[in-house]
Specification:
By secondary structure, this protein is an alpha/beta fold. The protein has helices at residues 43-51, 74-79, 97-107, 113-123, 140-152, 170-187, 198-204, 222-226, 233-242; strands at 3-14, 17-28, 32-36, 56-63, 66-67, 80-83, 158-162, 190-194, 207-212, 215-221. The chain has nine helices and ten strands. Strands 6-7-8-3-9-10 form a six-stranded mixed β-sheet, sandwiched between helices. The chain has a four-stranded antiparallel β-sheet with strand order 2-1-4-5, covered by helices on one side.
């Protein structure tokens, strides 16, 4: 079975700074795969490299069996969409929800835009009443639902999720995560998901890779992480940190 995403020896360099140091990774079709590690570990850079937003110095990226070159074409964005961390920054404040959803359809030349917009809004639990609102009239959770609708409207097979709930209140986080899980199951999507929150990753993902300073530290299943069956001290420290402050007296 062809992997949805296969990465081999990936290097990303910004002004002589090696952000990724020979990272390799394989995500199976239909799987939800997590990337964890502290800030600056290279998680988001890896997603951006796949999306064509970070400069690849060496190594290879293959998506659905097709090796990617330096530039991403329209066909790539039909297959792969990204949902960013900040729903406030990723939506244009002066455009209505309708306009935000029309844009990718116009770029890719879809004729059935009306139907797709209605279906996408419906799928993320917003409905047609939100079509002519502006981003600033929406709550954080509603904005992120619009961002997810925009990613889904081209019917991709892969979603790259960069901390998709970290800018949201805890109560809204669960709603958005449940929505993503539901959409993945229904559409049989592949997820590659970045989070610093181990609880979210173990809830959403079957397997994960731990990253530190631009390198892969270890690959685990979610079950191994939950059971603390890890081999690296760095991963143990992440687990300890995720359990938070415990009062002893």
């Amino acid at each position: 079975m062809t992997a949805a995403i296969a990465i081999d020896g990936l290097e990303v360099i910004f002004d002589r700074f090696r952000a990724l140091k020979g990272v390799s990774l394989e995500v199976r079709t239909g799987e939800s795969f997590g990337l964890v590690g502290e800030s600056g570990s290279g998680k988001s850079t890896l997603l951006r490299a796949i999306a064509g937003l970070a400069p690849v110095a060496s190594g290879s990226i293959t998506v659905n069996g097709k090796a990617l070159g330096a530039r991403r074409d329209k066909a790539f964005y039909r297959e792969v969409q990204m949902v960013f961390q900040d729903p406030y920054g990723s939506l244009h404040p002066r455009q209505t929800v309708d306009r935000l959803l029309q844009e990718p359809l116009a770029i890719h030349g879809f004729a059935d835009g009306e139907k797709r917009i209605e279906r996408a809004l419906d799928e993320v639990g917003l409905g047609n009443g939100f079509r002519f609102r502006y981003a600033h009239q929406l709550s954080g959770g509603q904005r992120q639902r619009v961002a997810i609708a925009r990613a889904l409207i081209l019917e991709p097979s892969i979603l790259l999720l960069d901390e998709p709930t970290s800018a949201l209140d805890a109560s809204v986080q669960a709603e958005v995560l449940n929505l993503l899980e539901e959409v993945r199951r229904r559409r049989k999507l592949t997820f590659l998901m970045v989070s610093h929150d181990l609880a979210i990753i173990t809830h959403m993902c079957e397997r994960l890779m731990v990253m530190q300073s631009g390198e892969a530290v270890e690959n685990l299943t979610a079950a191994q992480l939950v059971a603390h069956r890890v081999t690296e001290d760095y991963t143990r420290n992440l687990l300890r940190a995720s359990e938070g402050f415990v009062r002893t007296a």
